[in-house]
């Protein structure tokens, strides 16, 4: 939470407005105000404040329990943080640790604990606690109902009169200050800043040949945004919410760790306001609904896919992706060192990509890159890390990919994607001759979890894939390995000029 606290710690000034909240710097603020976070004075109405840098969505509600950022405590020097008094001896624990402990409890236990004090009431009402309970325990789908807490109760205690209980307004607690609890609400209700969207430095191409694509982008491993290569898709014309609901509204799709009927997912996405919205990401959509598989085709640039030699034993490789504004994928590298393409059918997506040798700020990969820890949400990453990349020598590649456009993501590139509106897309991972050696090299090494567990899933895949490639395309691996060695030697080869000059001092050197 230090990064959030730095984000919140700056000068503020209150100003009434009829529409939205904006963070604004007060250059004439007192010394005390200068140590205050870019925070809200939210005691009465969150939507009546304006602060510099961040806008709340016009539909943003006030925090249901009156939680304020810790910096606001400085505005009220006589106040005592009711968070501490209500926790008793547990007040020495960080908010994160308190919630970790509460995450071990069942729903009924959280309900009982909520009656102990106002502070426990606020903590036990933290929506991610109830979201985890629902997702961990639900079988066969669920119907989202206004909040995760209400959804839990209505799902597992259907006889309880939820409608009657929700007419009672939630308890608002005065003088409760917590950056950790506040940030979840803030990130869920924040608008994307214009400056986060304006940078567009990707190369765009329309109508290039396959040879040009290979030579200029796939071979040198460079991203490119391709236009016009999905114009003949039926999906581009047909796929919208109404069409999908009529075609497969009662079909279950993979949504995070659970399965949901499509109509229930849309019900969820229409209501939810949370920091990390669930994302529909299904690898078996074409098998479930063959019509969907027939209404798009792989763009001509990506049709060589050597993983196809494995047939039904190949790893998951294609997905339909659907999500509301604010949903998306935090920084990651595509699996098995594959390359990928992502075609937007409806909506628009903000992309940020870093080359393989540049780890994005706030991201902590395992040594082999197979596992990635990104402790902050997408919105919090923008708040706390995006600005710092402006001065980097290797700045990220960025763009907004709109409906009808295809993003090529080369193997090993870090990428973050956030939906700017409700979006529908298709993505596929593939292996061509250009990255075959990278894939084999990746699969050959067991990851950390395999070393601990003693399993050989990755190395088994390596042996199977390598054997089938050698049988299907004899000599290909040896040929590609030889070319890679020649290329590496060429890059190391000393030029004639280097043999007669001393690069350290810029003077000639002679050898007799």
Protein described:
This protein has 512 residues and is α+β, with helices and mostly antiparallel strands. It folds into 2 domains: 67-189, no CATH class; 194-433, Sandwich (Jelly Rolls). It has 23 helices and 17 strands. It has helices at residues 2-8, 31-34, 82-87, 95-102, 107-113, 118-124, 127-137, 148-156, 162-165, 179-188, 194-197, 210-218, 234-238, 241-248, 262-271, 285-288, 290-294, 378-384, 436-444, 448-453, 457-472, 476-492, 496-500, and strands at 204-206, 224-227, 252-255, 258-261, 280-282, 318-323, 328-332, 339-346, 348-354, 364-365, 372-373, 397-402, 405-409, 414-419, 423-430, 501-502, 507-508. The strands form 5 sheets. The chain has a 7-stranded mixed sheet. A 4-stranded antiparallel sheet has the order 7-14-9-12, with no helix packed on it. The protein has a two-stranded antiparallel ribbon with strand order 3-4. Strand 3 (252-255) and strand 4 (258-261) form a beta hairpin. The longest helix has 17 residues, at 476-492. The chain is globular, with a radius of gyration of 27 Å. Mean pLDDT is 82; it is low at 1-52 and 500-512. Its cofactor is Fe(2+). Residues 1-12 have a biased composition (Low complexity). Residues 13-37 have a biased composition (Basic residues). This is JmjC domain-containing protein. Residues 287-447 form the JmjC domain.
